[in-house]
Amino acid sequence: MIKTKKDIRALTRDELRDYFVAQGEKAFRGNQVYEWLWNKGAHVFEDMTNLSKETRTFLDEHFVINHIKVDQMQRSTDGTIKNAVKLHDGLIVESVLIPTSSRTTACVSSQVGCSLNCKFCATARLKRMRNLNPDEIFDQVVAIDQQSRLYHNRPLSNIVFMGMGEPLMNYNNVVKSIEKITDPEGLGMSPRRITVSTSGVPKIIKKMADDEVKFNLAVSLHSALDDVRTDIMPFNEQMPLQELKDALQYWYIKTKKRITYEYVVWRGINDQDKDIEALIDFCLAVPSKVNLIEYNPIDDGQFQQADPEAINRYVAKLEDRGITVTVRRSRGKDIDAACGQLANKEA
Ligand code: SAH
73 and 51: one domain? Predict the structure, then answer.
């Protein structure tokens, strides 16, 4: 019988220490291996030069080190870089580097495909294949940090979980990846520079609040009217807006962190005054701000960006009620790297 090797990056630092003790070695060997895996990015045991040759061979016989591979990289005229990332089992996800004058942001995927069914999103058309492991999310960040240094001469400054998948449907692994990303002995990024974006899963938002997570929360709202939202995001039927609002109020009470609502205005769908009034009501329930994002067409014509006049009305009315609103332009459109366009056409 062939013995399958274990994924060594699935072990915590303590588990690695215990493993070495069980083998009759010193616990600090576990720390050394952990550092090679998570701080120094070792891809093979052979590279772990402060371990004896025998230990390296032993580890190689019992474990694998899984790593993502940037399979294809596309560069946009605006500096945005899109990566098709191959996972150890051959599946592909996409991740994006978005540079602006003040920051460089990594947009990472959390699942292969997505189980939610937002009608305007390209990823929703791919069936959900599996969740990403914490190391697969971490590796996307490392790869983009390297690209940021190489092509833009600065380290990565921010991370958004706005790539493929619904992060709150893979909550445990997302949290574990953020632990590694923020670990001072690893990448050491501040959780304040990390934003998890969700289409709004009330139960998990409450759990995040209970866990007192330190990263930011963005919610893809797109409509504050149940009938409209259910039309464009059918899962809203099972998780209606009142439940979402309750969860967000709970979040704010526990974390004191303001929420960002992502919102696309579409012609004939949510561009009327009643839509704006409902959004204002929703916003007043919890301290929040609104990010109006540009629609990136996904080739079916059903959804069209609203007229500038409608966007201006949204901005004016929200500001009039003291709600902060920003209008975000899309990046990387020429390489299909913009929000909602990630669908690995090659796969
Ligand atoms: N599942 C998570 C994260 C991935 S989507 C979420 O829903 O938040 C990241 C953002 O892109 C979300 O705000 C989503 O609503 C938005 N989006 C999806 N398709 C889009 C499109 N075609 N154009 C513009 N934004 C889109």
Answer: no
* Max Cα-Cα span within the chain: 72
In the chain the beta strands, taken as DSSP E runs, fall at 6-7, 63-64, 69-75, 81-86, 92-99, 104-107, 111-112, 130-131, 158-161, 194-198, 216-220, 259-263, 288-293, 324-328
Residue 341 maps to a domain: no
Distance CA 167, CA 131 (A): 9
Q: State in Å, rounded, how far the first CA of the chain is from the last one.
A: 33
Instruction: Let me know: does 295 contact 328? Beta carbons within 8 Å.
Output: no
- ∠57-60-64 over CA atoms, to 5°? 170
- For residues 51 and 182, state if they share a domain: no
What is the distance between the alpha carbons of residues 63 and 46, in angstroms, rounded to a whole number?
A: 12
Residue 27 near residue 16 (C-beta atoms within 8 A): no
Q: What is the pLDDT of residues 191-201, one digit of tens each?
A: 999 999 999 99
The number of distinct structural domains making up the chain is 2
- Which helix (DSSP H) or strand (DSSP E) does residue 31 occupy? helix 28-38
| 94 in active site | yes
Note whether 118 and 342 are within 8 A (CB). no
Residues lining ligand 1, judged by CB closer than 6 Å? Answer: 120-121, 162, 166, 197-199, 220, 262, 264, 293, 295-296, 298, 339-340
Q: What is the arithmetic mean of pLDDT over 3-7?
A: 87
Q: What is the pLDDT of residue 347?
A: 43
Choice among 136, 262, 283, 339 that is catalytic:
339
DSSP letters for 50-75: TS-HHHHHHHHHHEE----EEEEEEE
31 and 74 in a common domain: no
CB 318 within 8 A of CB 290: yes
